[in-house]
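Subject — a protein and its fold

Tokens — whole-number codes for backbone shape
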Amino acid sequence: MRSNTLIKDEGMRVLAEKLGLVDAERFIVLLRREPFDYTEWRRHLYPGLSLEAFLKKADEFRSLSAAPTSA
């Protein structure tokens, strides 16, 4: 199991890569600004997608992100 620090570091890296550093920080501020229920948020983000299907997609994405790129 990975440490909380490792997960936070990787999460911030992924956010910054996908959103840019400024928007990644804005995203975090938005989440912290109001009460946040991840489960409810996910239901609205991907309506009709089961938890199992969501986790499968997350694993697939992680596998693609971890795959070495050819130069």
User: Anything to note?
Assistant: The chain has a mean pLDDT of 83. Helices lie at 4-19, 21-33, 38-45, 51-66. The two ends are 31 Å apart (CA to CA).
